[in-house]
Design goal:
Layout (H helix, E strand, L loop, with lengths): L2 E3 L7 E8 L1 H8 L16 E6 L4 E5 L11 E7 L3 H12 L3
Antiparallel strand pairs: 1-3, 2-5, 3-4, 4-5
Length: 96
């Protein structure tokens, strides 16, 4: 597996976005770490991921009342910009 779930995401911040659906994220990354429909402060759904190379990424909605199910501009958070590249690479590999 190219990634594992993690809760060690302190200090991550927005690095990019990816337009996709909730179902596609579940297909590629599995069930979210939090949510859907969590009653968090600003996030209802979030994947917290650690890639094999140590890159930390989060994928989450932002200031939504309900977890988006259709096409949505999901936020990608990380400690470094590589988080965006790892998320995109993983999504693309699933389409080959």
């Amino acid at each position: 597996m190219k990634f594992t779930k993690t809760k060690l995401v302190n200090g991550t911040s927005l690095k990019g976005r990816i337009d996709t659906t909730y179902d596609e994220l579940v297909r590629v990354f599995g069930a979210p770490t939090y949510g859907p429909e969590d009653s968090g402060d600003k996030v209802t759904c979030e994947w917290c991921i650690k890639f094999r190379d140590g890159t930390i990424a989060t994928i989450y909605d932002w200031k939504e009342i309900y977890t988006p199910r259709g096409e949505y501009g999901w936020h990608i958070g990380g400690l470094k910009g590589e988080a965006v590249a790892r998320v995109y690479e993983t999504m693309e590999m699933e389409y080959v």
